[in-house]
Amino acid sequence: MTVHPGTSTSTSRQRVHDVDALRGFALMGIFIVNITFMASAYPGNLVDDPSFSSPLDDAARFAVAALFSMKFYLLFSFLFGYSFVLQMDAARRAGRAFAPRMLRRIVGLFVIGAVHIVVLYGGDVLTTYAVVGLVLLALHRVRDVVALRTAVGIYAVVVTSLVVSAVFLDRSAFMPSHEQALASAAGQTQALLGTPVDIVQHHLGGLELLVLQAVSLQGPTALAMFLLGMVAARRRLFEVLGERRSLLRRVQLVGFPVGLAGGVGYAMLGADADTLATTLSVITAPFLAAAYVATLVRLMHDRRTGRIRDALAPVGRLALTNYLAQSVVGVVLFTGVGLGLAGRVSPPMLALTALGVFVLLAVVSSWWLRRHRYGPAEYVLRWFTNWRRPERRSVDPRPR
């Protein structure tokens, strides 16, 4: 990260910590959503598991949909765009051409994501990021105003297409009935308890839906967030944001009412099972994500709660390793090659499990970074990106 005149090295490093901490926070939210798909095939079929139908189960599903679904993915995408500029800075400092280096990184992400889909979790995002990253690379020299207009335009197209679908398309014409979805979910959940071959087949069976979702929703919204993150990094947003408390308060005052209202509406309308609900979430999720960021930044820059940064930053610094580790945990807990708990864990317990695993990963990440410069996955990706073997040992015992 470039250190500007008048900015101390420690202050600049603190801002990198802010980005790492936000990335760790995003990983927590993503895991709370993803674990529901790892633990059962019912969410993927857009139906609730009838085995868990108590008011507490319904409340947990509602809370996850309203507070987490589609919000943390946007934040993670924004931070990917922000880190894209930091990668440009790193290439410039190293005296290396940026485009070849970034192309190798994108190829590496895609390969890791493809293996992730087959072996660990069919809901991978790395392959989508890799493909959309190619578009970002093609646009990385555009002016800020062009990047912002493109992001807004992409979002407008996504919202318009969803509105048209909600008004004019009859979902029942191409979606299975509720009974068919329940039967499919039961069979797929049973497949998770099978042999490694059964699990791989289950993952590959959802590939068509994954591609469709990536093309129609996740890919375009990710690109919009990439572009916004790129502009934010060019303007060194996190070098000044912590001191702009009035701005952070305004973001909270607007973001929480709009975002929470949209999240509640999304959950009440049936979440992803309803196109209108998805439209509402796409429109309002950025507001709630921004409010989360403002709140966390304020906490990290308060002397009484500043240690939150120290707890979250190691997770974000090892984001790729922890993202893959979450999927490994899912395999160990829920599939037939592990404990075989698929279809047996209630929604409230899934949320608590996700939080417990996240805390454990945070502790392990902090311990690892006191001994190593990079996480295992980051080490491999950096080796491929730079086309040379990185140093293993950490030169700074503190997370950076």
Automatic annotation (TrEMBL):
<feature type="transmembrane region" description="Helical">
    <location>
        <begin position="277"/>
        <end position="299"/>
    </location>
</feature>
<feature type="transmembrane region" description="Helical">
    <location>
        <begin position="349"/>
        <end position="369"/>
    </location>
</feature>
<feature type="transmembrane region" description="Helical">
    <location>
        <begin position="145"/>
        <end position="169"/>
    </location>
</feature>
<feature type="transmembrane region" description="Helical">
    <location>
        <begin position="210"/>
        <end position="232"/>
    </location>
</feature>
<feature type="transmembrane region" description="Helical">
    <location>
        <begin position="21"/>
        <end position="42"/>
    </location>
</feature>
<protein>
    <recommendedName>
        <fullName>DUF418 domain-containing protein</fullName>
    </recommendedName>
</protein>
<dbReference type="InterPro" id="IPR052529">
    <property type="entry name" value="Bact_Transport_Assoc"/>
</dbReference>
<keyword id="KW-0812">Transmembrane</keyword>
<feature type="transmembrane region" description="Helical">
    <location>
        <begin position="106"/>
        <end position="139"/>
    </location>
</feature>
<feature type="domain" description="DUF418">
    <location>
        <begin position="232"/>
        <end position="387"/>
    </location>
</feature>
<keyword id="KW-0472">Membrane</keyword>
<feature type="transmembrane region" description="Helical">
    <location>
        <begin position="62"/>
        <end position="85"/>
    </location>
</feature>
<feature type="transmembrane region" description="Helical">
    <location>
        <begin position="253"/>
        <end position="271"/>
    </location>
</feature>
<dbReference type="Pfam" id="PF04235">
    <property type="entry name" value="DUF418"/>
</dbReference>
<keyword id="KW-1133">Transmembrane helix</keyword>
<feature type="transmembrane region" description="Helical">
    <location>
        <begin position="320"/>
        <end position="343"/>
    </location>
</feature>
<dbReference type="InterPro" id="IPR007349">
    <property type="entry name" value="DUF418"/>
</dbReference>
